[in-house]
Amino acid sequence: MGIIKIGFGGGCHWCTEAVFQSLKGVIQVDQGYIASTNENETFSEAVIVSFNSDIISTATLIEVHLLTHKSTSNHSFRGVYRSAIYYFKEFEKDILQGIINKLQPDFEHKIITKVLLFQNFKDSREQIQNYYLKNPQKPFCQKYISPKLELIKEKYSKYSNL
Fold it and tell me: pLDDT digit string (tens) for 112-146?
């Protein structure tokens, strides 16, 4: 299939960025803020992932995403940390929702992650891009990002660059 783009939002974009940077087949991760349409037109922390679908599947990326943020928790910070998967082409919407539906039995609670149309993107400021790669020993990285990367090494070793 070749190179595909998809957007992911959930928790802090520093965490989301580091998670996807750690996977084989991911070519580029752009950290920033994504806006969709209608009630989701405000910007929310997210990343755009460009990946080679011959190396890693969309389904695997979605599974990793759902497991590395609170995809079943509708907490009070969802405006800033919208749990979402953003599509760029209309035909992708039903495919992405189907993948979430197929993964639902693996979760104790209902997945709240929305499948939303990508509308706009703003880059994060340069100082916080590649945050984990620049700061792996910082307390935030050790507390929040490192455990997610350990999960990837254990559960997705086939796809891990770690």
Answer: 999 999 999 999 999 999 999 999 999 999 999 99
Q: Backbone phi, then psi, for 132, in 5-degree steps?
A: -65, -40
Give the number of other Cβ atoms within 10 Å of residue 147's Cβ.
11
The verdict on pTM exceeding 0.90 is: yes
Bridge partners, 28 (sequence order): 50
CATH architecture of 3-159: 2-Layer Sandwich (3.30)
Is 12 marked active-site?
yes
Active-site annotation holder among 4, 6, 12, 99: 12
- Extended beta strands in the chain, E state: 3-9, 26-35, 44-52, 84-87, 114-117, 120-123
Q: pLDDT per residue over 17-56, tens digit each?
A: 999 999 999 999 999 999 999 999 999 999 999 999 999 9
